[in-house]
């Protein structure tokens, strides 16, 4: 069985997670498997990673953040972010600083949450999203198979009024594999802001055979249309997260 790091094409560098339907869970699973040094951070407001995933956590900004991260070289697992007045939240770090810190600190891997989705299963980015460092190596674009069959509304989609035109769905219309495929293939969906990075699409929460069938259809449709090099079907909360990998032929 293909391992998660191999399936996602993770070989080190800067890896950003965007979209909806399990970004943090995906980043945390990658962190738990990565054998070398890593940093966990974000370019947007987020919740702190669980204690089990870091040896040192730094909350600072500007020059203080930079100095603290560079001085934390003895810690293999590092988490850093900006301070926030929002309870239970930390602030994002400027993408240029993340790139500088990755290279200056010699981290083997930097994992970045690069947009938000308010716990929904699918989204299209707004004009100023996602916030991806220019030096990013891999962008993981997530959406959830759990939205298949659900109506396009705020219960499942973050900003459904923005998502609808990207995927060709009207408000309240049931979401189909074709809609997920359009999101993955669209330059205003999964392809937005990717730049020089490799794009890997992830359809997550493929928790049963019915979802697998729909996710597989979406992946096969999407892979020939857009810039994603592969679509990985996952169940990130399962013991074995990989359900299937669909690659461009």
Report on the structure:
- The chain has 249 residues and is α/β, with parallel strands linked by helices.
- The strands form 2 sheets. It has a 9-stranded mixed beta sheet, with helices on both faces. A two-stranded parallel sheet has the order 6-8.
- The chain has helices spanning 4-8, 23-33, 62-70, 95-105, 160-167, 177-185, 209-223; strands at residues 13-19, 38-42, 56-59, 77-81, 109-113, 122-123, 138-144, 157-158, 198-204, 230-234, 242-247.
- The relative contact order is 0.17.
- α6 (177-185) packs across α7.
- α3 links the parallel β3 (56-59) and β4.
- It is built from 7 helices and 11 strands.
Provide key terms for this protein:
9-stranded mixed sheet, 7 helices, alpha/beta, 249 residues
Shape: globular
Q: Record the strand order, biggest sheet.
A: 3-4-2-5-1-7-9-10-11
Total domain count: 1
The strand count comes to 11
Order of helical and strand elements? HEHEEHEHEEEEHHEHEE
Radius of gyration: 17 Å
Mean pLDDT, all residues: 97
Structural class: alpha/beta
Total of DSSP H or I helical runs spanning 4+ residues: 7
* Cα distance spanning the termini: 20 Å
Q: Which regions contain 5 or more consecutive residues with pLDDT less than 50?
A: none
- What oligomeric arrangement do these chains adopt? single chain
Beta-strand portion reads 15-25%
Helix content: 25-40%
User: How would you sum up the major sheet?
Assistant: 9 strands, mixed
